[in-house]
Design brief:
22% strand, Arc Repressor Mutant, subunit A, nine-stranded mixed β-sheet, 30% helix, 2 domains, 14 strands, globular, three-stranded antiparallel β-sheet, alpha/beta, 9 helices, Rossmann fold
Length: 334
């Protein structure tokens, strides 16, 4: 019996064309890759995913103020919440265009399917840019051991290939295990391969046990430097309000942390603008970021100057505002 010829050949890296990573939200969620968002039940990981999907569906602004060039289509597969009384009302509350957000269904409910052909065809047919599984553990069949490294790797490799082929960002929502003393990267429920194959891992948790403020820890980033710890608040009336970077060492809901890295002409420009804008009134976080975008100022520079001026974040009726204390203004003018 003749041996079959192998299709495997030797290829040198010199023949590979280099390319840059594209981002849904830099540096937290890359396009074409797997991202894991993990957290305890009720801490806001699903709300965060739905809010991001809503922003994408209308071509809005990401949490750091970045304006999307156009609306995109999303597939949101959820097996824990009802589509009619929970998911759609949340999307509408977050301002989503629900005609751009779909789910794979058996005519009534979302299907628990990892079938790669079905997913690939759906993404290509919709030209979807985001696919969300909520939670990932629900999509393994009942005989599947999601703690088994080899079995998990086979399933998730298929998803990784789909993301690579289509450029679609794939978000896996996952629960945490009970090992609170372990490293965050090992806190995900199930096999460590879920975290290992994900290019970015975000952990959503409450700032404090009794707090409405949630934080997003960037516990793994394979494609870019880790992002700062980002904050948001959830309430029944306003939905999600973005706060910005949270200073965990300060443990305050009203202080945003920045890294002071450099000074220069642009820094002075930002300082003067913030003082000018905030002398007369407090402004919403998103409004400040929107204004600064006109001056081509990086978010990192804005945060740096914010800390230097002693600007704090305060909660008002419809969200989080930046406030410049009068003491800092008087000192600046002296």
């Amino acid at each position: 019996m003749k041996n079959k010829k192998s299709n495997i050949s030797i290829r040198y890296y010199s023949s590979v064309n280099t390319s840059e990573v594209s981002w849904l939200w830099y540096p937290y969620i890359p396009y074409g890759k797997l991202t894991l968002i993990q957290g305890d039940p009720g801490d806001g990981k699903s709300s965060l995913a739905l809010k991001l999907a809503s922003i994408l569906s209308v071509g809005g602004r990401m949490p750091d103020g970045t304006k999307l060039s156009e609306p995109v289509n999303i597939i949101y597969q959820c097996l824990e919440d009802d589509t009619s009384d929970t998911i759609k009302p949340r999307l509408e509350n977050y301002g989503a265009d629900t005609s751009r957000i779909a789910f794979l269904s058996d005519d009534i409910s979302p299907v628990a399917s990892f079938d790669d052909d079905t997913l690939l065809n759906a993404i290509q047919k919709m030209n979807a840019k985001l696919l969300i599984f909520d939670p990932i553990q629900s999509f393994f069949n009942k005989d599947f051991d999601y703690r088994n490294v080899g079995m998990v790797r086979v399933y998730l490799n298929k998803l990784a290939v789909i993301g690579s082929k289509t450029g679609c960002a794939i978000i896996l929502i996952g629960h945490l295990n009970k090992n609170e003393s372990g490293k965050n990267i090992y806190r995900g429920l199930g096999s460590i391969d879920i975290s290992a194959i994900s290019r970015s891992v975000l952990q959503v948790e409450r700032l404090r046990e009794d707090s409405k403020v949630r934080i997003i820890r960037h516990v793994k980033s394979s494609l870019a430097p880790e992002g700062g710890t980002f904050g948001f608040e959830i309430d029944d009336i306003n939905g999600i309000s973005w706060i910005g970077d949270i200073d965990l060492e300060n443990e305050s809901e009203s202080i945003i942390s920045q890294s002071i890295c450099c000074y220069g002409e642009k820094t002075n420009t930002v300082k003067n603008l913030l003082v000018e804008w905030l002398e007369s009134e407090d402004l919403p976080y998103n409004e400040i970021i929107t204004r600064m975008n006109k001056y081509n100022v990086s978010l990192r520079t804005i945060k740096m100057v914010k800390k230097e001026l002693g600007i704090c974040s305060i909660r008002k009726g419809d969200g989080w505002y930046w406030h410049l204390p009068e003491l800092e203004i008087s000192e600046e003018n002296e």
